[in-house]
Each structure stands twice: as C-alpha cells, then as structure tokens.
Amino acid sequence: MILTRLRRLAAPAAIVLLAMLAGTPVRAQTAATEASLKAAFLYKFPGYVEWPPAAFASPDAPLVIAISGADDVAAELERLVPGRNINGHAVVVRRVREDSLRGVHVLFVGRGDPAARAVVDGGRQQGALVVTETERGLELGSAINFVPLDERIAFDVSLPNAERAGLRISARMLAVARRVVPKA
Amino acid sequence: MKLPRFLAGSLRNKVVVMALATTVVALLLSALGLVIYDLRAYERQATTDMEAQAEVLARASAPALSFGDPRTADKDLSVMRARPQVLAAALYSPDGKLFATYVKSGADVPAFPPAPAADSHRVADGQLVLFRTVIENGERIGTVHLRATYQPWDRLRDYLIILFAVMLASLALAAVLTTWMQRAAVGPILEVSNLAHKVRETRDYTLRARKTTEDEIGQLVDAFNEMLAEAGRRAEALRLADQRKDEFLATLAHELRNPLAPIRNALEILRLAGSDPEKSLAAREMMQRQLAQMVRLVDDLLDVSRITTGKLAVRKAPLELQAALRDAVEIAKPFLESRRHKFNCVMPEEPIVVEGDRTRLAQVFSNLLNNAAKYTDPGGQVLLSLAREGNDAVVRVRDNGLGLAPESREQIFDMFVQVDRTLERSQAGLGVGLTLARRLVELHEGTIEAQSDGPGRGSEFVVRLPMTYARIADRPGEAQGPRDGPGRRILLADDNVDFAVSLGQLLSARGHDVRITHDGAHALREAEAFRPDVAFVDIGMPEVHGYEVARRMRAAPATARTLLVAVTGWGQENDRQRAREAGFDRHLVKPVDPAEIESILEGR
C-alpha cells in the first residue's frame, strides 16, 4: 500500500541521483564514476526482478550478468561481484558477443555495441533483463534504459518489454524509476 | 461499635454514602489495576510499535537507498506525518552519512547524530531513540533512525483525567440510582420515620403510614399503624377516664357542700327556737338526715379509694341472705318512703345461705334499692325479691322507673357514670354505687346485671350468688353469749372530748354504765379498776396509743376478755389488720353510726 503510494508520488519525477553523499557536487564525478555507478545499478537490479523458475538450472545456479560493448562497466562489475550473491545466486560477469547469449540473466548493451538492436533482441529472446544506455533504448526493446538527467543517472523502465522477456519487475523499484512505460 | 460521624446521621445519608463509597472504591481499584497494567504494556508496546515502524520504513526506503535516491527517500520518510508520535526520522547511507531526514513540524528535537548507532533502542528525555539497519538482498544498504515521544506520565495524566471524568459520571449515576432506590426501599422507612416524628410532635394518633409494598417494610408499616391505633385508643381511654375523674371531683365538691347549708340553717333554728320542742326536733332530724348523707358520701369516697387501689376486701362467712336483705331494706327504707314508692319484699321462708360478708352484701342491695328509688318518679313501685334458682341465690330489684337504653346496660357499672345527670343533685350521689356493687358481688364469686325493656319502661337489677349448704356455724365470738339485761360496763377512750362525751351520754341514756377517758394511760388505769365488758378505744390518742392500750388490756387478767372495739378515722384494710393484731375484736370507722354501736352491744 505504502509502496503503491510511494510509486505514485515518485514516478512522475523519478530520478536517480548520482550523489551518494548529500551535498557532494555531482559535476565533479568522472566517467569512471559513471561506469561504476552503472555497474552498481546492474548488480542491484536483479534484487527487484523475478525470473521464471526455468531460468536457473538449479536453486544455487549462478546469476549471469553479460556486458556487451561497455568494457569499463564490465570491469567495474567484475571488481564488484566477487564473494557476493543475489537471492542465493552467485554472480558471474561475462563479456559477450551476439552469438553467446545462452544462460544470460542480465544483459547490458553498452553504447559501444555496433549491433545493439540485434543483441537486445537476442537477450530478450533468451529471457534476459536487457539494460541499455541509449536515448531510444526502450524502443530497441530493452526493459531498462539508463538516462542522464541533470548530470546524474536515472533509469526508465518498460514493463511491456520486461514482460516480453518473461520477467516481472518489483513495484518497489519502479518507485525510483524516472519513467515507467506501463503495460499495454 | 462507634460509627464515624458521617454514618451516624440519617438512614438517607448512610445509603448515599455507602453507594458512593462503593462506587469510588471500585473505580479506584480497577483504575489502579488498569494503570499499572497499562504503564507496563505501554513501554513494550511503544517499543515494538517503533520497531515495526522502523521495519516498514526500512523496507519502503530500501530501493531509494539502493539506487541512491534521497528525494524518494525523503518522500518515504514523510509518511511519518501519519504517526504523530514520531518526532523525527532519518536514513543513513551504508558509509554512515545522513541520506534523508524528516522532522515533525513544530517538534523540538536535537540534531541528528552525525553517524548511525548499532541496532538499538533507548529512552532519553522522554523520547524513544531507535536505530535499525536496512538489509536488502542480504546486503546492508543503510540505517533507519527514529525518534518518538515516550511519555508514560502524559499517558498517566490522560488516564487520571479519564478516570476523573468516569468517576464523576459514575457518582452522578450512583446518586441517581440511590435516589431511585431510596424511593423504592428507603422511602417507606423514611416515611414511617417522618410520621413517627410528626405523631410525637402533634400527638395525633389518627395519622397512618402509607403501605406501598408487601415486603418486610410493608409489615413494618402495618405494625407501626397498629401500634398507632393502639396508642390512640389508650390515649382516648385515658382522656375519658381523666374527664370522668374531673366530673367526679366537681360532683364530689358539690355533694359535700350540699348538706352543709341545711345543717347551718338547722343550727340557726335551734338557736332561735330556744325551748320550742317541736321546732328543735324538726331541726335535729334535718341535721341527722343531712349528716347521714354526708357520711354516706364519705363512705363512698373511701370505697372508691379501695376500688382504685384494689384493696376492697370482704370477710366471708356462712350467711343467711335474708339477713343481709333485711339490713338493706332497713337502710333504704327512709329514702323509699321519702319518695312515696310502693315497696314490696318477697323472700322465701327457708334460709338461703351463701358465703358472704353481711355488711357488704347489705351495702350492695341497699345501693340497688336506693338506685331504684332514685331513678323512679315519686309514687312508683319497687320490688325486692329473693329466690333460689338451681344452685344460685338470685336477688332482683325491680322498679317501674326511668329504665335504661340498651347501650347503657354495661356502661352504668363504670366508675363515675350516671344515667341521668339532670337529676336533682341532692339525690345524685357520686356515681360509684353500681361500680362498688359489681365489685363486691364479684368478690363473692357472683354476677350482677341490669335489664330493661328500654327508657321509661323500668329496670331490673339481678344479682346471682352461689349458694352454700353449710348451716350457719356458731361463731367463736358468740360462744360467751350475751349477758342478761341491757346494763353493761362500757369504757370510752377518745381524745376527741365532744365525741366521747356525746357517745357516753347516748350510751348512759340507754342504761349502760359508762366511763370516759381521754388518753391511753388514763384508759388503762380505769380499765383495771372498772373491768369493762366493752371498750371503745380511739387509736390516735396522746401518750399511749390505741394499739398499745389494746395489747396491755389483753395482757391484763382483769380485761383479757373485754370486747375491744377500735374506733378510728382510718378504714384501710391494713389499719384493720393492725388493729386485729393488737387484740381488737372489732373495728369501727369514724363517724360512728350509733346503730352500729348498738348492734355490737346487742351481740355481746
């Protein structure tokens, strides 16, 4: 109930502030910091997403986060995940190509991927949570799209795209999204 | 047990105080229990409540913390507005920096701690301070901090205010209920109490308490009313008795005064008439009649006194009733003749014997005859009859006079009651004759009743006495037998010189040898020398009183067999008793009737 209300209040202007510290000037952040933030987001998204049971071979099967065309983010993520797990799943980071998307749970398609649309489609067909960082990311078919906002990073969510991949996104996460594309 | 002052008052106060005290005590006890329980529960509840609040807040703000969104976090915290007891709330990021804050508007709270503490809660300055770590997906992503009011004393104060209000309401309710109860239960008792008070003040015994219930109170009311009725009857009876006594006293004064005027007149006639024997005789006779009337009145008075003190006594011996009747006729005859009544007396030849006192029975019948003569117009008829009916001797006195109303038949036997107060007072008497007659007949185990066919048709008084069959026994006093001839030696001892001398002259005139003395010592000396057959001794004499004289005369051989007659103004039974003990044979009460002395002398 509270969450529903929170979401309703927050949704029209959902922004993720880059600053983790109150009063710290955002403009001082570097590109490396942007990459590490995105890595942290990618690591946290799975906590609010529900995969179909078939997505994991076993309850303790690892959760695979695949990075395509964003090596800096991949590097940050690789640095972040060792020894950690999400909902009982160990986290594995994989740098991928279009042809090796099998078994991927989260797919980040970076701005540097020339064949973004194909990768996004592939990821969705594999039932992965596809995250993009381009202006029209959601139109490409991703479920989540990072957007810069006032020199900060926020994200939009497309529920239809997530649904097409067979995923359910927690309403609690929607509360902090900048924009949510509702179900048809 | 001594009651406190507020309980010592009226029943009404007691009931009110009891009801209110019960209410207050019950409320105080229950409130005390509730307050203790609640204050204990309050801390537990306040803590768990804030823990839960922190838990909810942690969960709600977890995404905001996860994705570093302070604005959303602020919004998350601002829902605390719905919890007024929460004064301030804050979120800390995992690195221990303040991430979002909320302060209740108008709340005066200290600055947020710069760094979060470990999970804990504590009470400080009337506030509950709480920290709780936020864990999301198994990871510590921040800390929730809450600051809430914690004021059990405020709560206690609220409690006391509520208790006070409840108590006021309860007391009001108790007062209303008590009033109602009083009307139902105590009301009738109070009514009886008020009535008792009123009766005591007004002496109005016709008042009655209202009976409203059939329970014990109703019985109380009934009993109270019965007692009132009884008290009323007694008060009325007392009033009537008092009234009759007043009337009697008035009558008595009148009756005693009446004969004095004719006596004074006669004395004057005697003085003026000088030696005219006819006028002197007439005057003397008048004086004699009036004196006899006065003596009768005083005798009646003495009898009244005996009746009221219960000392009326009869000395019973086997008695031929005809003798008593002849005595009565003797007494009543002058009055009957003066009223010119035609009088008849019917008595059987055979002796009818009863156990009785001749003098007293004669008094009864003479009273009846006098009544008949009195209440019959002059020239009427009066019939006295004696007959034997079974084992009863029945005496009837019948007249053709005024008669009696049926309701008067019993009443006339009451003291001081007279049938017709319009009668000429010189004949009225004191209204004790019938009372005395009935009492005397009762002392003889007999009955007396009045019969009449109604006013103006005459009346009949019937006396029934149980008969005895014993022959008249020889009395011990008569064993000596009378002496031949009238001449007896008589000693008179009385310090009333007039009385002694006049009696002496009377007796001398009848042929007796009379010696007169005026004191006890003289009497004793005279007695020894004179050896009298009969001695009339006054009790109240100077030097040696009558009792002593009698004892010494009995002791002396010369006078041991003398007939001793006490002559006194005191006729009470204990006086007679004392005289008997001293050795007197007979007892005469002044004024002495010469006929009585004559009968004593004849009996000797």
Structure description:
The complex is a heterodimer of chains A (184) and B (604). In chain A, helix 5 links the parallel strand 6 (129-132) and strand 7 (144-149). The model of chain A is unreliable at 1-29 (pLDDT under 50). Helix content of chain A is 31%, strand content 23%. An 8-stranded mixed β-sheet of chain A has the order 3-4-2-5-6-7-8-10. Chain A has a two-stranded antiparallel sheet with strand order 1-9. Chain A has a single domain (2-181), classed as Response regulator (Rossmann fold). Chain A has 7 helices and 10 strands. Among the domains of chain B are: 11-155, PAS domain (Beta-Lactamase, 2-Layer Sandwich); 316-466, Histidine kinase-like ATPase, C-terminal domain (Heat Shock Protein 90, 2-Layer Sandwich); 482-603, Response regulator (Rossmann fold). Helices cover 52% and strands 18% of the residues of chain B. A 5-stranded antiparallel β-sheet of chain B has the order 2-1-5-4-3. Chain B has a 5-stranded mixed β-sheet with strand order 7-9-10-12-11. In chain B, strands 14-13-15-16-17 form a 5-stranded parallel β-sheet, with helices on both faces. In chain B, a hairpin with a 5-residue loop joins strand 1 (86-92) and strand 2 (98-103). In chain B, helix 3 packs parallel to helix 4 and helix 8 packs antiparallel against helix 11. Chain A binds chain B through residues 2-3, 5-6, 9-10, 13-22, 41, 44, 47-48, 84-87, 172-173, 175-176, and chain B through 56, 60, 62-64, 66-72, 75-76, 79, 93, 95, 97-99, 136-139.
